[in-house]
Amino acid sequence: MLSRMADTAKTKPSPATKSAKPRPEVRFRMRIRSGDAVALGPGKVELLEAVREYGSISAAARSLGMSYRRAWLLIDELNRSLKTPATHSEQGGQSGGGCTLTPVGERIIHLYRNVEDEAQRSCAKQIAELTRLIRS
C-alpha cells in the first residue's frame, strides 16, 4: 500500500513466466513547488500514508527507511507550505505521543493518488507505445 508505483509495472512473475522479460516500470512523479521548496511530492505523500498507518513520525520513518529527523523535516516543510496543516502531533509522555493526519492530510493523499491514477489511465496508449521502445 505504501509504495504506489504503477500497478501495471510492478507484478511478480509466476513460475511459468519467469523466463519472460521484465516490463519497464512506469511512475508518475508529480511535484508542486512553492518557491524553491517542493511543497508536495511523492515522498511527502508516501510519508503521510505511513503516518496514517503507523500513527507516529518515528514509526513512519522506520517503515520507509529514513531517519526520524528527515521525516520530521519533510512533515514540517509540508505543514508550513499548506494553509492548514496535514498532520497533528502530540507530545510524548505516558501515552507516548504520536502523529495523526488532519482532514487536509487525508485529502492530500486522496487527491494526489487520484491524479496518478487518472494520468495512468489517460496516458495508457502513449505509455504502451513508449515502453515498446525500451529494450528489456
Number of strands: 4
Q: End-to-end distance, in Å?
A: 26 Å
Number of helices: 5
* Backbone structural class: mainly alpha
Q: Looking at CATH, which topology of the domain at 31-87 and 95-132 would you report?
A: Arc Repressor Mutant, subunit A
Name of the level-1 CATH class of the domain at 31-87 and 95-132 = Mainly Alpha
- Overall radius of gyration: 18 Å
- Order of strands, widest sheet: 1-2
Per CATH, the architecture of the domain at 31-87 and 95-132 is Orthogonal Bundle
Strand content: 5-15%
Compressed to H and E, one letter per element, the order equals EEHHHEEHH
Q: What would the principal axes of the Cα set say about the shape?
A: elongated
Unreliable stretches (pLDDT < 50, length at least 5) are: 1-11
Write a structural description.
The protein has 136 residues and is mostly helical. Residues 1-11 have low confidence and may be disordered. The protein has a domain at 31-87 and 95-132: Winged helix-like DNA-binding domain superfamily/Winged helix DNA-binding domain (Arc Repressor Mutant, subunit A, Orthogonal Bundle). The chain has helices at residues 42-54, 57-64, 68-81, 103-122, 124-132; strands at residues 32-34, 37-40, 87-90, 98-101. A hairpin with a 2-residue loop joins strand 1 and strand 2. Helix 1 (42-54) crosses helix 2. 47% of the residues lie in helices and 11% in strands. Residues 1-25 are annotated as: Disordered. Residues 45-106 form the HTH lysR-type domain. GO terms for molecular function: DNA-binding transcription factor activity.
